[in-house]
Amino acid sequence: MTARPSPWVLVVEDDQGIAENLVLALDELGYGAQVGATSDRAWAILDGARALPALILLDFLLSGEDGLALCSALKGHPRYGQIAVIVMSAHPGARARAPQAGADDFLPKPFDLDRLDAILARYLPVVR
Amino acid sequence: MESAARGAASEDLGSGDDQSFRPFEDSDGGWGDQALLLRSIANARNGIILTDNGRVDNPIIFANDAFAALVGYERDEIIGRNCRFLQGPETALADRQKLRDAITRGEAVHLEILNYRKDGTPFWNDLLISPLRDRDGRVTHFVGNQIDVTARKEAELALARERDLLEQRVRERTIAIAEQRDESQAIAETVREPLLVLDERLHVRWANRAFYSTFRVTAEATEGQQIFTLGGNQWDIPQLRELLERVLPEHESFDDFEVEHAFPSIGRRIMLLNARQVRLRGQQSRQILLTMQDVTEEARSARSSARQSALTSAILTSLPAHIAVLSQRGDIIAVNEAWDRFAVQGGVPIEQDAFIGVNYLRTLEGVIGDESDDAQRASEGIRRVLAQQQSSFALEYPCDIPGVGQYWFMLQVVPLRHEEGGAVVMHLDITERKLIEQRKDDFISMASHELKTPVTGLQLGAQVLQRRLVRLGLADEAQTVERLRGQITRLSRLVEELLDVSRINTGKLEIAPVPADLVAVVRETAELLQLNSPGHAVELAAPAALMALFDRDRITQVVINLLSNAIKYSPAGSTVEVAVETVDGAVLVSVRDRGLGISPEHQAHIFDRFYQAPTPQGHTYPGLGMGLYISSEIVRQHDGRIWVESDEGAGATFRFTLPLAGGEVRP
């Protein structure tokens, strides 16, 4: 996938199944998307992007890595710190911990398209 | 005066010139040495008198100084009187008679007679009376020679009294000894144990009836025999011989010397022998009192009870549970080895310092508030069991053992079935079970989370597909995807329920009750379900508003569960009635369906975890049996009550209560 001029979303998600469906859903909602399955990959996408993503959807549990650590690092970054980060998780404890890592919002799994649409609308201009 | 009178007498006698007093002078004047003789009589230490037998009543015609001093009278009070004036009330009649007889007969007499002085004091008079005869043999005078022997006489009398007393005592003692022997034997006869009295040579002096009846022997075959020869030498036991032989010489008694012997007449018995040295008062010889107690039955039952108690002890020791027995007051009166080991390790706060003698309730109260309220609950539970307010008590509690890790124990308290009351306290190590449960809960939790991710993907994918099919004008295909989404929603709810069950098991189901209008929540839920179930009528009967204290999301979950069950089990076209009202200071929510109802045996279990009530046809409805369990836990955590009322075939009414929130109605 390549960066597009329209608002795009960085999806940091190690589960390929949900990542693909998320990209499909974001596309349905009119947003472009890129997926980074690991934090290294996420940094690489950000560093190589011509335009910054409008929003980052970040999984709470990346395999072997702490999604919240990545969230803190992003939020403390001089360039990327301003990008809104929404933490997604099926873990109920994540809701309380996400704000501590500087996350802007929390999206509990499972969620449907309407729920995703509603939360994105809070941070992104409506593109449809 | 007295001395003057006496002096006069001496003078008279001494000079020998007094012509009026010459009793021994005869016509010849043959008393050449008379004066010398008179002088010695006058100075003699014995009292000497002369009486004139020729005159009426034998009057005293001479008395020396010693006599006057002896009797305490003046000479002129003496002269001319009969000697009897010295006699008094105590003077023996026999003595008086003797005197009279001797005088009458003109004979000499020697006697000891009680006389009285002028001042009335008595004295013992050693009196020798001798007649004086003239040439013709006629008694002319009597000479009285007297000595005061009071002191000797009194000593003699005292001696005689003492002797009498002694003899009296000896007589009494002799009787007492005889009585004592009788008494001792009488007592010995009342002793139910066989008893022997042995002499110094260990010969039987006496045996009581119990001895004869127990050993079935006769007195003839026993008395006078040496103990070791009795009954075919059955008592000839070296150790007993040694003990018995030491009793008298060394004043050694012995107790409970056990003899097990096959007695010829009574078989194998176990006897306890006791020996004492005895000496009857007044008897010189020492004796041995030997009693024999037949303890065969006791010994056998003791052996059997020792075996029983060893078995009980072995069982208790083998048990891995930590067991203590508490008295009615909560004192530890017995513990098993596992308890002891644990108490010594001191790892567990509620077993620490819990040794025998310690009050366990106080031990528990000492650790209350340390970390959790487990100690408090344990203490209260034990108190209730001890007070017989509760037939048993159980509590599962975690406990961190320093350097070992976390353990889980189950405290079980049951009443001690004993007349004095008390309780048995057990701590079972349930760490293993808890670990397995923990793993299971972790698994359910993990599996649920893992399921949620693909459900999310499915949901998103299906929704995108549905929208695109609609855009393409493929309505039928879009409808198929809509049904697919319904199944995904159901899957999603099952996953959520599994998670709730796991939360309940681990105590992590969190309830945050706040005051809110319950009617509004029930109405919204009823309207939502009515929308989704056009085939049924959902009717609500409720006041405009009712403030209760509850967690909005969780109570919504309960109402959804009850309403969707009611719709599911009601025939199509029937009405589901929902009511909200105030009853007994609480809010009551009721959901009534017109279904088949629930039989009483299923009503009892319908809120149990994973319980599925079968239909009258024996089938079970789809589902995992989690909904009502979760609902009941949610209501319970609100301090509410949930129950079902049903007549089989006439539908069911599920009801639950919630606390009122001060009765305030939100505008």
Describe the structure.
The complex is a heterodimer of chains A (128) and B (667). By secondary structure, chain A is an alpha/beta fold. Chain A is built from five helices and seven strands. In chain A, the strands form two sheets. In chain A, strands 2-1-3-6-7 form a five-stranded parallel beta sheet, with helices on both faces. A two-stranded antiparallel ribbon of chain A has the order 4-5. In chain A, helix 4 links the parallel strand 6 and strand 7 (105-108). The longest helix of chain A is centred in the N-terminal third of the chain and has 14 residues, at 16-29. Chain A is globular and about 30 Å long. In chain B, strand 14 (405-415) and strand 15 form a beta hairpin. Chain B is of the alpha+beta class. In chain B, the strands form five sheets. A five-stranded antiparallel beta sheet of chain B has the order 2-1-5-4-3, with helices on both faces. Chain B is rod-shaped and about 205 Å long. Chain B is built from 19 helices and 22 strands. Classes of the chains: A alpha/beta (128), B alpha+beta (667). At the A-B interface, helix 1 and helix 5 of A face helix 14 and helix 15 of B.
Question: What's the quick description here?
Answer:
Chain A has 128 residues and is α/β, with parallel strands linked by helices.
Q: Return the average pLDDT of chain B rounded to an integer.
A: 83
Helix % of chain A is 25-40%
For the biggest sheet of chain A, the summary is: 5 strands, parallel
Multimeric state: heterodimer
Q: What gyration radius of chain B follows from the Cα positions, in whole Å?
A: 63 Å
Structural category of chain A:
alpha/beta
Global Rg of chain A: 13 Å
How many strand segments of chain B? 22
| Terminal CA distance of chain A | 21 Å
Number of helices of chain B: 19
SSE layout:
The complex is a heterodimer of chains A (128) and B (667).
Chain A: E1 8-12, H1 16-29, E2 32-36, H2 39-48, E3 55-59, E4 61-62, E5 65-66, H3 67-75, E6 84-89, H4 94-97, E7 105-108, H5 113-123
Parallel strand pairs in A: 1-2, 1-3, 3-6, 6-7
Antiparallel strand pairs in A: 4-5
Chain B: H1 2-15, H2 34-43, E1 47-52, E2 60-63, H3 65-71, H4 75-78, H5 93-105, E3 109-116, E4 122-133, E5 139-148, H6 150-190, E6 195-198, E7 204-207, H7 209-215, H8 230-233, H9 238-247, E8 254-263, E9 267-278, E10 287-294, H10 296-318, E11 322-326, E12 332-335, H11 337-345, H12 360-367, H13 374-386, E13 393-401, E14 405-415, E15 423-429, H14 431-471, H15 475-505, E16 514-517, H16 518-532, E17 537-541, E18 547-550, H17 552-569, E19 575-583, E20 586-592, H18 600-603, H19 627-637, E21 642-646, E22 652-659
